[in-house]
Design goal:
This protein has 167 residues and is an alpha+beta fold. The protein has a domain of 112 residues: S16 Ribosomal Protein, Chain: A. The protein contains five helices and five strands; from the N terminus they run ββββαβαααα. It has a five-stranded mixed β-sheet with strand order 4-3-2-1-5. A hairpin with a 6-residue loop joins strand 3 and strand 4. Helix 1 packs across helix 3 and helix 3 runs antiparallel to helix 4. The longest helix has 52 residues.
């Protein structure tokens, strides 16, 4: 039975949410699955991917072929790297400890990149909000100046009133 690692669509119209599944290649897109490996939510920025890496590696070692999108997600989370390192261990090129060390170093680097992107997005949003607030403040001050009543004191009227009161 040919097995594919692919995405199974869930969610509502316009708001997709995907399960990453191992399924028979002959089954429908949203049909019967063999195992749910993880989830993928493209609606967040950066996209949220939760993946059981060990399960994905097990399916890859058993001959499951990922689709293009699933392959990109497996690569993003490091399942393909872990599979590659496992092959190296089987061939004797690496020890188990070396493979784990390389994988952990890669994961730390990847987490740094993801958190950096999240931080930069949050900073950009805060800067944009501050700029909008500053322009709004300037517009409100201009409106306040334009709507101020013009008070001109007419000294001749005051002198006439004062002279009329004296009489």
């Amino acid at each position: 039975m040919p097995v594919k690692i692919r995405l199974q669509r869930h969610g509502r119209k316009g708001k997709p949410f995907y399960w990453i599944v191992a399924a028979d290649a002959r089954s429908k897109r949203d049909g019967k699955l063999l195992e749910k490996i993880g989830t993928y939510n493209p609606n967040t920025n950066p996209a949220t991917v939760e993946l059981d890496i060990d399960s994905a590696v097990k399916w890859l070692q058993n001959g499951a072929q990922p689709t293009n999108t699933a392959k990109a997600l497996l690569s993003y989370k490091g399942a393909l790297l872990k599979n590659h390192l496992a092959v190296g261990v089987r061939k004797g090129a690496l020890t188990e400890e070396q493979a784990e060390e390389k994988f952990k170093a890669w994961l730390e680097e990847k987490e740094g990149k993801i958190s950096g992107k999240s931080d930069s997005l949050a900073k950009d949003a805060a800067d944009k909000k501050a700029a909008i607030l500053a322009t709004e403040k300037a517009i409100n001050e201009a409106r306040a100046k334009a709507n101020e009543p013009v008070v001109e004191e007419d000294t001749t009227d005051n002198e006439d009133k004062a002279s009329n009161e004296e009489e």
